[in-house]
């Protein structure tokens, strides 16, 4: 019963993320890593924009209790682009990600519910409450980097990313997305300590 309740709570969490598992993949692992570089450069630049807009949202929430809709949608789009690029780069999908923030163009599901009202003073402490998540995610990210290399070798050798490794990397990305959206004011629900 506890597992059912936990699954229900995760399903109702305001941030959902998943990546379709491909049954077979091209063995051109290292080519994919090279082809992913333009996306990494663009996403790196967009992250500065995302940070600046999050600072604007910080003050907007303090004064109004609302995340400005235009800022929210733009930051959401940046996170979608990053998720698509990361799925290509870390999970070695064959289909090249679009140079776009639009939904439905890549086999990655990222959904962030638009909040109606946010706690006005929460931006002052949310990032502190998220510190345990980021400590754990730092460790998991370090492990995931080796899992990505292992996955790349397995794709190179056998044309298939091991399903357990794939699910682990997706789980780390899911956890990171939930913690980041909480710490940067996109919702008020404290994220679970979970890869699911």
Structure description:
- It contains seven helices and two strands.
- The two termini are 17 Å apart.
- The longest helix has 28 residues.
- The chain is mainly alpha-helical.
- Helix 4 packs antiparallel against helix 7 and helix 6 runs antiparallel to helix 7.
Please count the helical segments: 7
Order of neighbouring strands in the sheet with most strands? 1-2
Shape: globular
* Count of the domains: 1
Mean pLDDT, to the nearest integer, reads: 90
Low-confidence stretches: 1-5
Number of strands: 2
**Beta-strand share of residues:** 5-15%
Task: Report the radius of gyration as a whole number of Å.
Answer: 17 Å
List keywords for this structure.
196 residues; two-stranded antiparallel ribbon
Summarize the model shown.
By secondary structure, this protein is mainly alpha-helical. The protein contains seven helices and two strands; from the N terminus they run αβαααβααα. Helices cover 62% and strands 5% of the residues.
List the helices and strands and how they pair.
Blueprint: H1 2-11, E1 15-19, H2 29-35, H3 37-64, H4 69-91, E2 108-112, H5 126-129, H6 131-158, H7 163-183
Antiparallel strand pairs: 1-2
Helix pairs in contact: 3-4, 4-7, 6-7
């Amino acid at each position: 019963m506890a597992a059912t309740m936990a699954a229900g709570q995760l399903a109702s969490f305001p941030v959902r993320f998943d990546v379709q598992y491909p049954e077979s993949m091209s063995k051109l692992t290292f080519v994919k890593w090279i082809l992913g570089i333009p996306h990494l450069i663009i996403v790196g630049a967009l992250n500065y924009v995302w940070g600046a807009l999050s600072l604007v949202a910080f003050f907007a929430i303090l004064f109004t209790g609302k995340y400005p809709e235009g800022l929210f949608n733009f930051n959401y789009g940046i996170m979608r682009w990053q998720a698509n690029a990361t799925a290509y780069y870390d999970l070695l999908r064959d289909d090249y990600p679009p140079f776009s923030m639009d939904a439905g163009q890549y086999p990655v599901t990222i959904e962030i519910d638009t909040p109606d009202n946010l706690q006005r003073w929460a931006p002052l402490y949310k990032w502190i409450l998220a510190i345990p998540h980021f400590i754990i995610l730092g460790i998991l990210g370090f492990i995931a980097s080796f899992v990505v290399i292992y996955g790349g070798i397995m794709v190179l050798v056998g044309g298939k990313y091991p399903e357990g490794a794939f699910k682990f990397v997706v789980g780390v990305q899911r956890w990171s997305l939930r913690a980041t959206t909480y710490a940067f004011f996109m919702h008020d629900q404290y994220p679970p300590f979970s890869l699911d």
